[in-house]
Structure formats: structure tokens, C-alpha cells
Sequence to fold (428 residues):
Amino acid sequence: MNVERLEFLVGEEKGLREILLDSDVMPLLKGVLAAGAGGARLVDQEGVELWGAALPEGRGELLDRFPLFLEGEEVARLELHGDQEQRERLHPVGRLLTVALDTVIRNNLKRILTTEIHTSVVNSSQEELMRINAELAQSEARYRELAGNLELRVKERTAELKRAQAHLLQQEKMAGIGQLAAGVAHEINNPLGFIISNLHTLQKYVSRFCAMLQFYRDHLDLDLPVKVLSAEADQKWRELKLQQVVGDVGDLMSQSLAGAERVSRIVADLKGFSHVDDAGDMPVDLNEELERTLGVLSHTLAGRAEIVKDLQPLPSISCQPQLPGQIFLNLIQNALTHAGAAPRITLSSCFDGERIRFSIADNGKGVPASLRGQIFEPFFTTLPVGSGTGMGLTVVWEAVLKLQGSIAVADAPGGGAEFMITIPVGKG
Fold:
């Protein structure tokens, strides 16, 4: 059976204008103007301006260039303009803006690719089913003629179905990554917004401090009596409202540092969850993987669901580090989808000396006993048509099997569904 392949060639089919929107870029460029730059613009590799912002009095001199990369190739450059005296102060702002633009580009590209994959699969599913049905009808006639080769034909068909299922599982994982990326981008934009705002305020405060220092320089040359100089300095201090400025500077710096640390934690949680630098089996603490998963889902859970944790110390297990994250991510999202009006998700873990046991329970309607044997099957879902792919719990099932474990579902105490995972711990 010939299966149509979907290919996406980054840079050949998607230009930067197709990936970014004005609403993605212009607020960031205007934020650089607020930070003190005379102008900021994004140009392509030929130097053609794609987006730009400048002060009414003009951009000023070119201060710095920052390349933007995608898939290891430079796709654009960020150029900052202004007064040469501000070059050193604006360089960190340019670096921060480059990181923000790089994050937006990657997130938008992932969203675009995920949307195109999902749309293609949905549009082709009916045609694919009809084609498979026709091929099965033809196969039945051939099997009657080729009874001697029946075993070989069955093996071939089984292999094709396994490949198709593996392909669909991979698509489900890609869709989950796209959702996470969109949420993480939103979480990063929030602290980045008030950091830029605080920097703008600090710029105004610095100008007042500079004015006070200039006052002292000008008046010291006049050789005035100390009392006169002190009185005029006090008056200038009050005019510049430096008492309030001094009291506010500490808060602005603390807020900005807290925002930067928040961005750092978000990036660290996402990197730890993806295990992008890890390959092959390695020791894994399942409690830590659960906490990382909660970290990358914080934008979804915060203010929406109550998380109750009862996690006991666990021994490490040797496995592919991506597997636990796939299990926890899909089970928590499933619990959130099926929880009640006031979602409550209960997470617990323990070790009985031979096996690690995890429980993820919600306060929803639960899973009827008649459906518990089907919920892990591919494409099975209790959601309305178009609301779910029915592959999330299949991903969980496959990941648990790779850990040589088992998973079951039962009624949670007080109502809802409880998914129980058991994973053996190898001796030594």
C-alpha cells in the first residue's frame, strides 16, 4: 500500500513573513525604543527590511547586529540604531530581544507545522479508509487464490498496520509538543513584558540621577557656602522627587530579576522535560519527571485545577528519559479534560520494595466498567467528534509497556477515574 508522505522543507516553503505576524514583532521592536534605542528593525539576508520601528527624530547610527537562526541557518538579522554612547547599554536589550524573537519564530513554526499535519490527516482520513476498504476487498479474493501464502500475507499486513499506528502515535506526540510550545511562549511573554516596562521606568530614574549629579558638578565649581549649596541641593532633590525614586528602584530591580528567573525556570523545565541532550537509557527519578511535567503544564493548571500531591521517595530506574514525561503529560491532560467543574487532580507515588506505583486520579465522572477495556485502544475516545484523536492513552500504554510495567483504571475514592501504573525495579 502506498502511503502519501507529508514533507515540510523549512526555508524553502516557509518565509519569515509567513511565520511571524506584525503583532508578534512590532511590540518587541517598540519595546526596544522604550528602552532607549533610536530605531530597531528586522531585515532578511539581503538586507531588505521586514519590520521596523523608529523614533520620530530618526533611527540614528547603526549600533549592533544580531543574527536570527532557524534549523542552524541564518534567516534574518536584528539591527539596533541610536546614539553610540548607548551602544553598550543597549547590547543586552538586543540579546534579550533576539532570544524572544527566536522563541516566537520556533513556536509559530511548530504551530504551523502541527496545524498542517493535523489538517492533512483529517482531510485524508476518509479517503484513506475507503482506499483501505477497497484493498481489503481485493485482498480477500487474492487470499482465496493464494491460500498457500496466507501466513506471509498476514505478516505483511500486520507490519503495515504497526507502521501506521507508530506514525499516528508520532503525530499525537507532535501535536502535544505544539500545544506545550504555545503555552510556554505565553508564559515567557508575561514576565518579558513587565521586565521591559521596568527597564523603561529605570531609564527615566537614571536620567533624574544624572540630573542631580550634573547639579553637583555645576555648583561645586561656583565655590558656594556649604549651607547655600546644601539648601539648593535639597530643593533640587525635591524637584526631581528622588526620595520616591530611591524607594522604587529596589522594587523595580527585584521584580525584573524575579521575572528573568521565572523565564529561566520555564526554559529549564521545558529542557528537562524534553531531555533534548539525553540519548539512550539512563537513571531516572520518576518523581522528578512528574515535577518537570507539572512545570511545563503550569500555564494550563495555574488558577484552573487543584493539584494534590503525595509523593514518596522512589529509587531510580534505567530507561529512556522521555518515556515518563509522555506518560505523565497525557494522563494529567486526560484528567484535566474529564475532571469536574472545579478540577482536582491527585498524584501519589510509593515503592513497595519491588515495584514503583503511581496513581493519577481526577474528580470527574469516571470511566464506566464497560469501557475500561477499550480506552487504551487507538482512536477510542468518549469526547465529541473533532474534540479528541483517541491516541493520548495509546501513547501512555505504549510508554508503560516500554518500561515493562502495567496500567489499569478504576473508580477514584470520592468519584472520578484513577489510573494506576506499576513499574518493576530491577535488582542492582
